[in-house]
Amino acid sequence: MRHRPLGRTGLTVSEVGLGCASYWGKPAFDETLAIRLVHEAIDLGVTVFDTGSSYARGEAEPRLGRALKGRDVSRLLVATKAGTAPAGGGRVVRDAGLSAITASVERSLRNLGLDALPLLQLHGPAAAELTEEFLAGLEGVRRRGLVRLFGVNSFDPAVVAHAIGLPLFDVVMVDYNVLRPEREPLIQRAATAGKGVLAGMPLAMGHTGRQVLKLRGPQDVWYAARGLIRHRAEVLQGARFGFLGDVPGMTGAQAALAYVLANSDVACAVTGTTRPAHLRENLAASGLALPTEVMARIREVQAA
Questions:
Q1: What angle do CA 164, 272, 40 make, to 5 degrees?
Q2: N or C terminus: which one in the chain shows less Cβ crowding within 10 Å?
Q3: Torsion angle of alpha carbons 232, 238, 240, 245, nearest 10°?
Q4: What CA–CA distance (Å, rounded) separates 45 from 138?
Q5: What's the CA gap between 67 and 265, in Å, rounded?
Q6: CA separation for the pair 252, 155 (Å, rounded)
Q7: Which contiguous run of DSSP H or E holds residue 48?
């Protein structure tokens, strides 16, 4: 596993991280296997583990805490999120007030079994919420020793661009993959400002490999239904990149990751999985380079 600098934080992180969310965090997914995935990732050199207080109806974060129990976490960047919370019935509500964020931090520390959160990301904030008073309050949370680094995770480029200009934030997490080349100027701007960049959804939810058609277990049905309901346009766009599965010497998933990691401004590509073989496949993408002609074809399809 190769490592990269995380902006100007002074930290280095693994090129590929493990997302601990979605089906991985659900009680329906066997916890023994979920924990095994985390342990294997650590043993194979992964240092970034990303979760959230609202993920899997609030189940993902404490599950990650149980997986980390007894392990050496001193070299790990355990990232969680605040600003959203599960509200029952699968709903998620926003509560981005300072008191709610502080309470979320304290709850996350208990869930994860940590003395301080290595990285806390605000989950989908509005730019208008990032007031001077609010940011000063977050700095106070850091001074108390509860949080080491702050970040923003958002699908809204305008929010990320605003956060890049705020000194409080050390990291930004953006959705970046072959379907999102328009994120590249934003990523470059973040890196120039010294922010660490985490790439979320680097596999484009598996749509470049037509994963919605590959149903081998209940988790595949769950992911396929989510994709067809929430991300139908991405499913159709992803089919145009099916040629990534034909790159010599690598799988389609590895080719998709290699595209993201070809961007030197990305510190870590965070992927989720529920299968050990898929985990090993993803981690083996570290250090792989796409042939020039494949990158050119990607650019042609993106331009079209």
A1: 115
A2: C
A3: -140
A4: 31
A5: 30
A6: 24
A7: strand 48-50
The full 3-state SS of 243-295, as one line of letters, equals HHHHCCCCCHHHHHHHHHHCCCCCCEEEECCCCHHHHHHHHCCCCCCCCHHHH
Tens of each residue's pLDDT in the chain, 304 residues:
999 999 999 999 999 999 999 899 999 999 999 999 999 999 999 999 999 999 999 999 999 999 999 999 999 999 999 988 777 666 777 777 899 999 999 999 999 999 999 999 999 999 999 999 999 999 999 999 999 999 999 999 999 999 999 999 999 999 999 999 999 999 999 999 999 999 999 998 665 655 544 546 666 554 455 554 555 667 678 789 999 999 999 999 999 999 999 999 999 999 999 999 999 999 999 999 999 999 999 999 999 8
The pair of three-digit structure tokens given for residue 265, joined into one six-digit string:
């401004």
Return the DSSP state at 3: E
Burial class (CB in 10 A: 0-12, 13-18, 19+), 143: exposed
- Would you call 64 helix, strand, or coil by DSSP? helix
Q: How many domains does one find in the chain? A: 1
Show the domain range for 229: 3-303
CATH of the domain at 121: 3.20.20.100
Q: Which amino acid is at 87?
A: A
Q: Which of 7, 73, 10, 5 is nearest to 41 (CA)?
A: 73
> Which pTM value belongs to this model?
0.91
Q: Where are the beta strands (DSSP E) in 55-193?
A: 77-82, 84-86, 92-94, 117-123, 147-153, 171-175
* C-alpha span between 257 and 276 (Å, rounded): 17
* Overall size of the chain counted in residues: 304
